Amino acid sequence: MSDLTTFSALSFDCYGTLLDWESGLLADLSPLLSALPPSHPWHATPLLAVQRFNHHSEHLWATQPKLAYDTNLVESFRLLAEEQHIRLPEETLSRIGDGPGRWPAFADTVDGLQRLGRHYKLVVLSNVNEANIARAVAGPLAGARFDAVYTAEAIGSYKPSHANFRYLFDGVKRAFGVDKDRGQLLHVARSLTVDHVPAKELGLRSVWIARGGDKPEGYGTGGDYEVLRGEGKLAFEWVFQTIGEFADEVERQVAAKSKE
């Protein structure tokens, strides 16, 4: 396996990679699902609701890039409900706006980040607003250390915009002397379309935390792996199912080097 010990910093997508975005979102969508008729296909395959919600959210990313993520979530939920001809109370719609601050971390995340933090600077690059990421860092991600957090709200656009990644490159170079062009930065993410496609376009080396997304039934909202691979849009060099497995391999390589 290629050498992971040569990097100085790791940049992470947060939602879907560190935090369980899909299950957290689905829990917040439950009032809509419970209002649908029993025959509705979303009852049998709830992920379809998440994917449709994500379609609305990504459309708003592209058309209203300065819309804060909490508002994006509320408006996406509203559009989803209207599409299904369901009227939901405003307080039900608005509750989803603070979801990113309380959605759970994957079981492997905090321990994995603690171990990775012994070897690298850790940076978050997320399509989220400042208030929600602050709540997430203090809540479900408590115990992990982040050296910098860059949000869509601060940047003024959403990934996969190249502007977000350039903001990352400038930020880590200025703050830590980490130079992406010298191969010192490694991006770690679940989403293919939002993270790995622009990473290849910008020459940013990357790790895929697949979390089942390497099989069609696990694609979720991260993109169609076979299609994107066939189109030559992916260039990640490592694949792990979890952050924990990634940390295991880093520790293995560090230990092996210390014996040389």
TrEMBL record:
In terms of SUPFAM superfamilies, this protein maps to:
HAD-like
Q: Which PANTHER family match?
A: ACID DEHALOGENASE, PUTATIVE (AFU_ORTHOLOGUE AFUA_6G14460)-RELATED, HYDROLASE, HALOACID DELAHOGENASE-RELATED
Please give the name of this protein: Haloacid dehalogenase
Which species does this protein come from?
Parathielavia hyrcaniae
Keyword entries, A-Z: Hydrolase
Q: What is the lineage of its organism?
A: Eukaryota, Fungi, Dikarya, Ascomycota, Pezizomycotina
Task: Kindly list the GO molecular function terms attached to this UniProt entry.
Answer: hydrolase activity
